[in-house]
Amino acid sequence: MSYDVVVVGAGFSAIATVCNLIELLPASAKVAVVGDDPGFGRGTAYRSELYLHRLNVPAGRMSLFPDRPDAFVVWLKERKRPLRDGDFASRQDYGLYVRDTLAALLRDKRPRCRVDFIRAKATGCVERYNATLGFLLDNGDEIVGRHVVLCLGVGNAPLPVDLSALPSDARDRTIDNPWRLSWLRRVEANDSVCILGSGLTMIDQVLALFAQGFRGRIDVLSRRGLVPHGHARVPKPPADFDPADLPETISGILRQLRRESRRAGDWRSVMDTLRPKTQALWQRLAPAERKRFLRHALPWWNIHRHRVAPDVYDRFREMVASGQVVIHAGHLHDISTADDRLMLHYRKRGARDEVELRCDWLVNCTGVERAGIAHSPLLQQMMRQGLIKADPLRLGIGVDSNSVVRSDNPGAVSLYAVGALTAGQFWEITAVPDIRAQARAVAQRISDAGGPNI
Ligand SMILES: Cc1cc2nc3c(=O)[nH]c(=O)nc-3n(C[C@H](O)[C@H](O)[C@H](O)COP(=O)(O)OP(=O)(O)OC[C@H]3O[C@@H](n4cnc5c(N)ncnc54)[C@H](O)[C@@H]3O)c2cc1C
Q1: pTM of the full structure
Q2: What's the CA angle centered on 96, arms 90 and 99, to 5 degrees?
Q3: Ligand 1 first shell, C-beta below 6 A
């Protein structure tokens, strides 16, 4: 089957792109969305069924469309969800909002392009005649597109240790994909849980355990033991400085941001000023400075930049204060079993001490920092074909400032990427406010480029 546009992926980036294509393309155009995720549009992020799993961006900044910033807040009000200014809605509601928005566009009586949703995984890619790309699907079909948008997200990282020597019942109690919350049903209230990784996914798991009345101990282990900060309950206005005036070295930037934080009286105000300008700042940095940022500043950037809703933060800190959640900093190097339990050995950060942790359940929340090519057989194949290139920092694939994929054969195929795959070019491209702008821009370029049916 031949399409004007093929969108590969089924998470937020894909659906945001499709919503914009529906608005921009003529009724004669044909679009296909290929995704292996049953909840089209919800992806990993907005599939959660727990009300406690909240957005980490205020509802007022989560509209699907940059030019209609109130759309999500209006949707919440129409459904009588209690919401005050600056509130953080549930991720479940956000998933419903995305689904409803897409459904409303598809139901619209005005003439609109045809959109086919194909539940499948794209397993391979072939260049076809007339500068089109064909995708081989795991259901045996092939679809061909004149314009292609890759929206593959980051994928899943395997556990950082080898579990193959563990007996199968112990392997059964190591959770490699924590986003499938069904593992929680097997946990007894007084079991003990060890979580690897101390970022946002860890907080999600802790809250999910709390919500089901879990009373046991939760050990959290990560290299540095750094945990995300919370948003302020009453945010101060953004700090008064222009990020365009920041120096172009990481050490210089950090020095100035510390000065601005002291002046503003709250580092959050400084992050809020920086936030909409981060892409421009990243693009000004020389490759060596970008590398320096990734090597030295990334863990601190993550906990200050990706903050959690204030009540989520308070709940988590209470659990730490009560001793139910214990945070460890160190390097895990071994997992074995003893007395039917899992036994972890880690080396304490900055010390020689070897520490042993015992638990009934081990949950991998180390996540994937950025979208590497290694996690996707499709991308690996496309790289061998010269259709894409890894970006120099291996944060994803190379794209230009219009999200056009860089290849050895430029211009042959109209190929774009949206979302985390483009972090090498944009860095700040994981959250809705950035992805929605990118999705709109890509849809606009496709619409402007045209084609037989567009
Ligand atoms: C738990 C969590 C909470 C978050 N909370 C927020 C928040 O509150 N606010 C915010 O702004 N951002 C948040 N984010 C950021 C979030 O990642 C983005 O908002 C967005 O969901 C990313 O969507 P995506 O489509 O790029 O990636 P994904 O959601 O990962 O979707 C990629 C999809 O592509 C599919 N796919 C991959 N390869 C193939 C293939 N070969 N063939 C077919 N399909 C394929 C995958 O199965 C998946 O469905 C959160 C992220 C997570 C993980």
Answers
A1: 0.93
A2: 145
A3: 8-14, 34-37, 43-45, 55-57, 121-122, 151-154, 376, 378, 419-420, 430-432, 435
